[in-house]
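Appendix B. Chain record.
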Amino acid sequence: MTHSHSLLTFGTWYAGIHGYLSTCVCVFGIVTSIFNITVLSRKNMRTPVNNILSWLAVSDMITMVSYVPFAIHFYILNNPMQLSPTKNNKGWTWFMLFHLNLVNTTHTISIWLCVLLSIIRYAHLRSPARGEYVRLRRLKLSRIFIMSIYISSAVMMTPNFITKKIVEKPTMDNQTVYLIIDDNLINSDSQAAIILNYWLYAITGKLLPCVLIFIFGGLLIYKIHEKTRRRKQMMQISCANRTRLSEHSRTTKMLLTVIVLFLVTELPQGILIVMSITTPNIFDLIYVPLGDLMDIIALVNNAINFVLYCTMSQKFRNTFFDVYCACLCMHTQNESDLPLRQKIDSYSNNNQV
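Structure tokens predicted for this chain:
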């Protein structure tokens, strides 16, 4: 009881700052996701792995774009711990329902993209692409897999969409607020459909992808050690080959960091969902007080990929500087040329007959 009371106290305290913190993280993440998409979609960056990372950035950006108005309305402009007709009116409750379904879908998309990322990187280490035909074929396959993940994730979340309903609830002062509840709680004495829905989400959206990430992440670690050992045994290889192998190793480590962060973020949520299904009161006493904390951890995970790419990939840094610094330099050059052009135009106009 003491631990549950401490969690409730923490949840109440953190809710007071969650709106401001999550909004800042989302704004940063939206901007950096745009950087990721524009850089990774450049012609010289088009590979199956970068294609997956681009669509991962799209999924993360959708999550954060939806989260900004949600956080501002429900956490900053209104008391997050109280129901009110202003906060919980019909329009904003519909938006909350849309937001929750959208975020659950994009989270599912992102974690399955990480599974695909680990599988494709492992397949590349086992048999590197040789020749333009193989590279283009793998790029095409990656696009098919990505679209399949987007579509199948939406389909997997369909039971969650259709089991939610908005209902009216009168307040003590005869006003009306709107709440989201499971439709089966109204239409049936049995909660079998709700339990099945939670199990489906816990397994397909959390636990199964985490298991696959753990397996292929372990295989990636093994491959990194294997290549490192082989490189030490071949110290006589050329400097160019050593540089290329080192860059491949850094890329693999960067991707491994990305998928491990997803594993650390998503696995505890999956475990808590299973505990909430199987153990009474766990949802109210543990999952709800920690819900906002799990949200901010997931948002930070979405937002920091740009930092990881910049710090761990020289090719990403070079392309980023080529794209954005070139645009900045052109803009600065145009501004510096403007006064000279104005003087020339003024001279011409003042000397016309």
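Further analysis of this model is presented in Appendix C.
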